[in-house]
Amino acid sequence: MPTATALAQARELDLDLVEVAPQADPPVVRIMDFGKWKYEQDVRAKESRKKQSQVIVKEMKFRPKISDHDFTIKRGHVERFLDEGDKVKVTIMFRGREMAHTELGSKLLDRLAKDLSEMSTVEAAPKQDGRNMTMVLAPIKRVGPKPGAPAKPAAARPPAGNHRAAAAPAVDGEVDGNPPAAPEQTPDSPNEAGV
After folding, report:
1. Which CATH architecture best describes the domain 57-139?
2. Cα–Cα distance measured from residue 94 to residue 65, given in angstroms and rounded to the nearest whole number
3. Mean pLDDT for each 10-residue chunk of the chain (195 residues)?
4. Contact (CB, 8 A) for 87 and 137
């Protein structure tokens, strides 16, 4: 079909003539609403980005002569990172003569991996890298709600503080235990005295 005919047809339908495959011989075109097509492409791209999960690697640094209390605090931070779904790179930093006792660092990393074995797996085993020893922990994927998450409320729970309305049956004309309301007086309606 000649280009002029295709353009006339697109104008007649109030649509755009879009070149789909310019490298083909002859080039392939399509009659469509280009703005709508572009919008749909953007929406699809946004949806696919939403479904992607970005892997974030957090780092926690330890020293080989760390006290038990400090170890517990830092282990809590590592637990929180793993709970949030992040990977954790654990680094043991050695200084000076501590390099002669790198086994202390590997014992510390083994202890941490053992303590967190229920919620993580060792993705990269402990390895020496210069003056540092590193290990990477990855969270274990869970199905269902996280432990410690608040339970969903029951669907058929009566509202709090309204026990009397549910217990006492209504008397004729009463609504929720209240007597019937008096009819409204308007300026045009006669009152009981007939005035």
Report:
1. 2-Layer Sandwich (3.30)
2. 9
3. 80 80 80 86 87 81 91 92 90 90 90 89 88 90 55 52 52 58 59 54
4. yes
